[in-house]
Amino acid sequence: MLSATRNFAKSWAAKALLALLILAMAGFGITRYGFQAVGGNEVIKAGSRTVDPLAFRREYDNYKKRFEQQSGQTITQDIAEQNHLDAVVMNGLATREAFAALMTKIGIRPSDKQIVGEIEKIPAFFDPVSGRFDKTTYQRRLGDNGLTPAAFDAILRDEMAGQQWQAAIQHGLAVPRTYSALAAIFALEARDLTYFTITPQSVPQPPTPTDAQLKAFINENKSQLTVPELRVLTVVQFSQQAAAAAVSAAPIDPAELKKRYDFRKDTLSRPETRTVIQIPAKTQAEAQKAVERLRQGDDPDAIAKSLGVQAITFTDKPLTAISDHKVGQAAFKMQAGEVSSVQGDLGLAAVKVASINPGHEVTLEEARPMLEAEIRKDMIAEKVYAQTQAYDDAHQAGANLTDAAQKAGVEAKTYPAVNEQGVDEKGQRFGELDPKILQTAFALPAGGESEVTELGDGAYYAVRVEKIEPAHVPPLDEIRPQLTRFWMQRELIRQMDARAKTLIGRIEKGESLEAVAKSEHYTVARVEGLTRQTAGQHQELGRDVLGRTFSAKAGEAWSAPGAGGLIVAQVGNVKMDAGPTAAQLAEAGRRDLTMALARDLDETARTYARSKMKVVVHPDRARSALGFAPLEDQTPTPEKKG
């Protein structure tokens, strides 16, 4: 039922509904708003709005950063390019800009008063002393994030317009109760299943195939039987794991250890932190009154409220985190529980030190394990680099890959013929053959050698192609046993399928499934009251059988692969539950269906916007802005009308 609702939202009827809504909203005649074009260098153009390469790069970097934070993995340039991350960002941004342009065109645009009201509610723009919106803080925070007030205004307008659109289509929207009622009845529908199984042993066994039959089988399945091109490779890898063994026993230089400790001591040590309560005051009298009440143990927020200000609490913060430098200096000289009036850089305040957490200066012995690990890691990286330099020098002097590897003190390993996935003829996979190594190897001619190439994570490699075995179909004598087994299995399946069709034909002519099964000595089995909710309890039937059970018409005979063979089945006694359970399920599901319809209407509107605003994207400019390799076809891509 949900899929039907989603299909409606994407149908011509839904598009017509959206067109009527948009035309109605356009009648308000609100002033149009948009971005200025950027002189023909845009990555995306949607109506009057454009996205230039600099803006696209910023959007891409933000998207990539969010993705890395969510996945916990770093996305390298190669990974991003291979997975077309540029196209993902470009298409998402094009949809967003087209939708924003459409909202402006039809007059859905927040007023200046609404924009100002929203900006003044954002805590990041509050003054830490007064606790109110501060224009200077607002401009500084925007500048720190590479934004101007005009750019932030535009972003906020787009977001608020989108929210107003969503609120408009969701307000009062509810799918008819018949939708959720049908969905509930559909979910609770019960069916009785009667079936028997045609096993491989119950049909004539196929004879051993002749050579002519096997050759015909090879011709029919040539693409599946073709052995891909294989290559014998010799690879030398310069890895940190191998280099670690060479430097593991090397001593750590005491001077280097002391140098690192001195450089890192401040960052490794834990500074003293304090919980400080600050209540701004306009006069000395107010400050003294606040001091007295703090000493009495009154609630700081209540004290601040009586003075018309907000209390500021720095919880377990170092001195550098106190925004008013003089207040911080005074607070870090006070004792725990002490209260005092302080004249700060930003004004007078009553200050209380609620708690003190002493700092700790890390010693050399405490930092030694971490610093020695860092030094040894650098030693390993230097060792790998020295090996690659020694190899490269020998290779440039005329030594082949194996001899150059020996002079560099690393191992050159020769692998049996493997395909592009690093799998040999026996199906063994060589996991150490990284996809990048294989990609390089399969781009070389026979006898070709690569240069030292970076593999990632501080590792490098070089590869030589010793021999190339072209793709081919193995001769019959080589694969006869496997081919014979496959051929006989295929013929057996054909026999079972033919038997099933014959028996189904008898059922369709009027015989009962039980009578047909009995005449062929098959055992009949039954599952009564099978529902979509209880289907999981009958996994032994298999997905194909369960799927056909709920799609077949009552009385229809059919066959599907099942456990132990080919199942011939028939569905009967289809019952619909229209009682209290269905009613409860219908009411509970109505909200979900409504939300799904609202989401799909919004999605359809955004798709409509891309067509209506005549979006044009420039993949070549997008890739250029990110430093990706150019595409072969650099023609700008206009949107097609749906």
Features:
17% strand; Chitinase A, domain 3; alpha+beta; disordered N terminus; four-stranded antiparallel beta sheet; 50% helix; 4 domains; 642 residues; Triger factor/SurA peptide-binding fold; extended; 16 strands
Overview of the structural elements:
The structure is a single chain. It is built from 24 helices and 16 strands. Strand 13 (557-562) and strand 14 form a beta hairpin. Helix 10 crosses helix 20 (476-508). By secondary structure, it is α+β, with helices and mostly antiparallel strands. The protein has 4 domains: 34-173 and 618-638, Porin chaperone SurA, peptide-binding domain (Triger factor/SurA peptide-binding fold); 190-224 and 477-575, no CATH class; 230-240 and 374-469, Chitinase A, domain 3 (Roll), CATH 3.10.50; 270-357, Roll (Chitinase A, domain 3), CATH 3.10.50.40. It is 50% helix and 17% strand. The radius of gyration is 37 Å and the shape is extended. It has helices at 2-9, 12-26, 53-71, 77-82, 85-105, 112-119, 135-144, 149-170, 177-188, 211-220, 222-225, 240-247, 254-268, 284-295, 300-306, 325-331, 364-396, 401-408, 435-441, 476-508, 513-519, 543-551, 580-612, 619-626, and strands at residues 44-46, 49-51, 190-198, 230-238, 273-281, 312-317, 339-344, 347-357, 412-418, 453-456, 459-469, 525-531, 557-562, 565-575, 616-617, 637-638. The strands form 4 sheets. It has a 4-stranded antiparallel sheet. Residues 1-39 have low confidence and may be disordered.
Number of helices: 24
How is the largest sheet built, in terms of strand order? 2-1-15-16
Helix content: 40-55%
The total beta strand count reads 16
Total domain count: 4
Biggest sheet record: 4 strands, antiparallel
Arithmetic mean of pLDDT? 83
CATH superfamily of the largest domain: Porin chaperone SurA, peptide-binding domain
Q: Regions with pLDDT < 50 over 5+ consecutive residues?
A: 1-39
How much beta, percentage-wise?
Answer: 15-25%
Radius of gyration equals 37 Å
The CATH topology annotation of the largest domain reads as: Triger factor/SurA peptide-binding fold
Protein structure class: alpha+beta
Q: Please state the second-level CATH architecture of the largest domain.
A: Orthogonal Bundle
Question: What gap, in angstroms, lies between the N and C termini?
Answer: 25 Å
Question: What is the CATH first-level class name of the largest domain?
Answer: Mainly Alpha
Q: What is the molecular shape? A: extended
